[in-house]
Amino acid sequence: MRDLFYFIRKMHRDSGFRLYLNMFTTFVISCLDGIGIYLIVPMLSIIGVFQMNMDEVPLVSTLFEIVDSWSIELTLPLVLAIYVLIVGGQALLQRSQMVLGSRILQSYVRSLRSETYRGLLLAKWEFFLRKRKSDFHHVMVNELGRVSYGSSLFLQMVTGIIFTVIQIGLAFWLSPLLTAVVIASGGMLALFARKFVKKAGHIGDKTSELSQSYFAGINDHFNGIKDIKSNRLERSHIHWFGGMSKQLESNVVQLVRVNSLSQFIYRIFSITLIAGFVYLALEVFHTPAEQLILVVLIFSRLWPRFIGIQSNFEQLATNLPAFKAMRKLHQEYEQEQELTLSDSPDGGKPFQLQDGIECRQVHYRYDPKEPAFALRDINVFIPANRMTAIVGSSGAGKSTLIDMLMGLIGPERGQVLIDGVTLREEKQLLALRGSIGYVAQDPFLFNASIRDNLKLVDPHAEDAELWNALKFSASDEFVRMLPQGLDTVIGDRGIRLSGGERQRIVLARAILKRPSILVLDEATSALDSENERRIQEALDRLKGSMTIIVIAHRLSTIRNADQVIVIEQGEVIQQGGYKQLSQEAKGKFKQLLSYQTGMNG
Ligand SMILES: Nc1ncnc2c1ncn2[C@@H]1O[C@H](COP(=O)(O)OP(=O)(O)OP(=O)(O)O)[C@@H](O)[C@H]1O
User: Fold this and answer.
1) Model pLDDT for residues 318-364, shown as the tens digit of each residue
2) Do 47 and 57 form a contact (C-beta atoms < 8 A)?
3) Fold of 2-335
4) Could you tell me the CA-to-CA distances from 282 to 56, 177, 272 in Å, in that order?
5) How far is the CA of 248 from the centre of ligand 1 (A)?
6) In the chain, which residues have pLDDT < 50?
7) Residue 134 pLDDT
8) How far is the CA of 271 from the centre of ligand 1 (A)?
9) Who has the most CB within 10 Å: 202, 309, 447, 448?
10) Closest ligand 1 atom, residue 400 Cα
11) All residues at 6 or more sequence positions from 242 whose CB lies less than 8 Å from its CB, including other chains
12) Domain segments of the chain as ranges
C-alpha cells in the first residue's frame, strides 16, 4: 500500500485542485442520483401505482411541505419534468467528470512516464551495467500501463466510496435500523473479501515476474537472432516461448477464476441479503411499504457499487506489484543519479584540453563486494594533443580505464584530473563528455538514415561537413555508392552495413563533433588493411591538434603513438614510447609484439 500512496501523492502533486474538483463533482452527482430516486416515489403515487402516505417518508414529506407552501400542484408532467432535469443534469455532470478524470489520469501518466525516462537517462553508467535493459522496457511499457490502470482503479474506488457513503447517508435517514443491518452485512462481506484481495495480490506478483521474464526473453532472442539461426536454436527457443505463453495464459485464467468466484459469492450474498431484508422489513419491523420501496431502490443501486468497490480493490491488489516495481526503479535511479541537467545553459560547455588527463592512484571494482579490482593503483598521464595507445590482453582493463577517463565510472579510490582539476562536478562531467568524440568497441547506430545518424552530434552540419567527416573515416566512397547515398536507412543498430562500414560511420560521427579528445576503443578492428591505413593517416594528420586515445589489439595500428600504456590484470605494467617499449627485452609489450609479428609472419 505504501507503494500505491507514493504514486497517489505524485498524482496529487500533479493534479492538485483538479483532483478535488473531480471528487466534488462526484459528490454532486451522487446527491442528484439520490434525489432522482426520491422522486420516483411521488411519481409512482401520482401515476396511481400506490396509495401512499407521503408523511411516512422523511425527505419526501419535507419536499411536499415546501411545494405546498409555494402553492404548486404536483402534477405528473411537473414531477416528470423535474425528474428529467435532475437525471439529465446528472448525466451532463457525469460526462464532464469522465473527461476531467481522464485528463487527471493522462497528465499524471505522462508526467510519470517522463519522470521515469528522465530519471533513467540521468543515472550513472554504472547503474546500467548492473541492470538488464529489458527490465527498463518492462517497466516503461508493461508496469507503467499497470500503474496507470491501477491509479484509474484507485480513482474509481474513491468515487465509488464517496457515492456509497452518500447513498448510505440517505438510506440511513429513511430507515436507520434496516440500513444498519445492511451495513453490518456489507462489513462482513468486506472481511470475507480480504481473502480474495490477498489471492489477487499473489497473482499480481506472479504477473510481474512472468512479464519481466517474457520481456527479457524476447529481447535476448531478437538481439541474438543471428546466433539462434546459425546454431539451429529455433526449436528450443520456440519451445521456451510456448512454455512462457502457457504460463502467461494460466496466470490470466487464474486471475479471472478468483475474480469471477468473488463476484459470484457477492451476487449470491446480495440476493440473499435483499430477500432477508424484505422479509425482516415487512414481517418483523413492519416498515411502511413506501419506505421499503425507497430503501430497496437505493440498495439495488448501492449494492452493485459496493461490489464494484470490492472488485476494484481486488484488481488494484493485482496491480500493486507494478507500483512496487516502478517505485523500486525510481529509488534505484535516484540513488545513482549522476546528472540533474539543471545547470545554467552555458554550464558544461565543451573545452580544449590544455595540459592533459591524469589518473592518480585510481582503484576500481565493478562490484565493491568482490575482491577483484578491474583497475588497481593506476597512475597515468595522457598529454593533450598527443596520441596515447592503451594495450594489453583481453580482460586486462583497457575499456574500464577509458570509461574512467571519460568520467563514465568514478574511482573507488584515487582521483581523475582534467587539466589539473579533479573530475567531480556535473558541470565538469558534461564539459568533458561534450569535448570527447568516442567510438565504442561495439558501435551503435540508430535505425535512421546515415545523414540523421551523423547529424545527431551536430544538427546544423552542412552536407559538405558530413562528406568531410566521411572522407576522414574512409567511408565517403561506399556511402556515395549506396542507392540513396546519405539518405540510406541503415536498419536496427546499422544492421544493413558491414561491421567495418559501421565502424567508419561512427568514426565520422565522432569527428563531426570536432572533439578536443578522440577516444577509439578497438575502432578499426573490423577494417581491411587499406581502409585502416587511410584512417591511420587521417589520425596522424590530427596529431598535435587533438588528444587521441586508442585501444588496439592490432599493434601495427599504434606505431605512431606518442605514448603506449600496457595494462595487465588491471595494473599498468609498462608505459613509454612505442620504440622504447618495443626494445625492452623482458617487457610485456615486446612479447605482445612478437606474438603478432610471429602470427603475421
Ligand atoms: N560490467 C562489468 N561487470 C563486472 N565486471 C566487468 C564488467 N565489465 C568488465 N568487467 C571485468 O573487468 C575486467 C576488465 O574488463 P575490460 O572490459 O576493461 O577489459 P579489456 O581490456 O577492455 O578487454 P577486451 O580487450 O577484451 O575488450 C575484466 O575482468 C572483466 O571481466
Assistant:
1) 888 999 999 999 999 999 998 888 765 566 788 888 999 999 999 99
2) no
3) ABC transporter transmembrane region fold (1.20.1560)
4) 15, 13, 16
5) 37
6) 599-601
7) 87
8) 68
9) 309
10) 18
11) none
12) 2-335
